[in-house]
């Protein structure tokens, strides 16, 4: 069974409660349960969320040695600021897809720049929670 790691950054622990007009009303636990069910016969999914940059870097570093198929990452606000996260992704040599629930290009200008995007094979932005499923499906190809 292929293994895929789903990583979520700061404030996504409050998914479903935080700015629901932007991010919707599904909680992170709800999203994780749905993905686990939807991909039960195709992949083993692991989930990690942290509000701390270093914890995410540590997690990616551990995954690098773990023989997984790839990473789906929503770095949230760290997307726009974190050289450390970008370097961790590049250094891991793991396949990665970046996901944003909202369309970062339709929002404030400071969200238009992704520092982590160039460390990923692609970016899915603005498709809501569907973006996570699309990213997992992509990583399962081949
Ligand atoms: C986000 C977009 C980011 O700009 C923001 O800081 C988030 C969530 C998204 O999923 O749309 O926290 O990554």
Description:
- This protein has a 5-stranded parallel sheet, sandwiched between helices.
- The longest helix has 12 residues.
- The chain contains 5 helices and 5 strands.
- It has 142 residues and is of the alpha/beta class.
- The model has no long low-confidence stretch (mean pLDDT 97).
- The chain is globular and about 40 Å long.
- The structure holds 1,3,4-trihydroxy-5-OXO-cyclohexanecarboxylic acid.
- The site of 1,3,4-trihydroxy-5-OXO-cyclohexanecarboxylic acid (DQA) has 10 residues, from loops.
List keywords for this structure.
single chain, alpha/beta, globular, binds 1,3,4-trihydroxy-5-OXO-cyclohexanecarboxylic acid
Quick overview of this protein structure:
The protein has 142 residues and is of the alpha/beta class. It is built from 5 helices and 5 strands.
User: Uncertain runs with pLDDT below 50, 5 residues or more?
Assistant: none
First-residue to last-residue Cα separation: 13 Å
Number of beta-strand segments: 5
Shape, per Cα inertia axes: globular
Q: Characterize the biggest β-sheet.
A: 5 strands, parallel
Task: Outline the fold blueprint.
Layout lengths: L1 E7 L11 H4 L4 H11 L4 E7 L3 H12 L5 E5 L8 H10 L3 E5 L21 E4 L4 H11 L2
Parallel strand pairs: 1-2, 1-3, 3-4, 4-5
Helix pairs in contact: 3-4
The structure holds 1,3,4-trihydroxy-5-OXO-cyclohexanecarboxylic acid (DQA).
The site of 1,3,4-trihydroxy-5-OXO-cyclohexanecarboxylic acid has 10 residues, from loops.
